[in-house]
Amino acid sequence: MQQASGSTNKRTEARKPANGRGRAVFADGNFADCTIIDISVSGARIRLTRKSTLPSRFFLLDVKSRMVHAASVAWQEGDYAGVRFEVSHVIGSALPPELDFMRKHWLECAMR
Fold it and tell me: Are 3 and 37 a contacting pair, CB within 8 Å?
């Protein structure tokens, strides 16, 4: 499992392989598609599909599980990044109104 050079594994839970589609959605409305390589309850390792520097905080959409995670960057090296989840929601009827814009992103990704 590749991790940022010289970094120490500080995870509290083991991550499970995911290899799923994702999207990092930024506060300014921009986004970057990604692959979620592995995931746990508290975070994930992702690979961006195009070179991009992630903002310190963003929303990570997990297309397969229909989850949206408020995330912060733990590390980024090239097109790989480790992220921590602050809070997670299922895209469904209980999605908070302020996150309703994530439904559009999920639909765009799910239709591919």
Answer: no
